[in-house]
Specification:
By secondary structure, the chain is of the alpha+beta class. It has helices spanning about 15-35, 65-75; strands at about 5-10, 40-45, 50, 60-65. The termini are far apart.
Length: about 90
């Protein structure tokens, strides 16, 4: 059904709360750069409107530092746009 997906790759050493926050931050960067990824508002049976959500599947992967660097190099070599979150941003 989907020919594209959002891929989030996180450092495997992070704590769960960090992984959850990073997934949110990184996804928001991708969606902010691609507004067409946002679906329609949802209205429930009580006629209450909810905010629209991302309409793309999100794949969340873990990697060690070496593989994170390999992924980053591939992104740069392919001239793809991506979100990034570095250790200094946790401080």
């Amino acid at each position: 059904m989907f020919n594209t997906k959002i891929a989030i790759v996180l450092l495997h050493l992070l704590q769960i709360w960090q992984k959850l926050n990073l997934t949110s931050f990184l996804t928001s960067g991708i969606i902010g750069d691609n507004p067409s990824l946002v679906g329609e508002e949802y209205k429930d049976n009580s006629n209450y409107n909810y905010l629209p959500l991302n309409k793309q599947p999100v794949i969340i992967l873990e990697a060690d530092e070496i593989n994170l660097k390999k992924n980053h190099t591939r992104i740069i070599n392919r001239s793809l746009r991506c979100s990034i979150y570095i250790n200094d941003m946790f401080l």
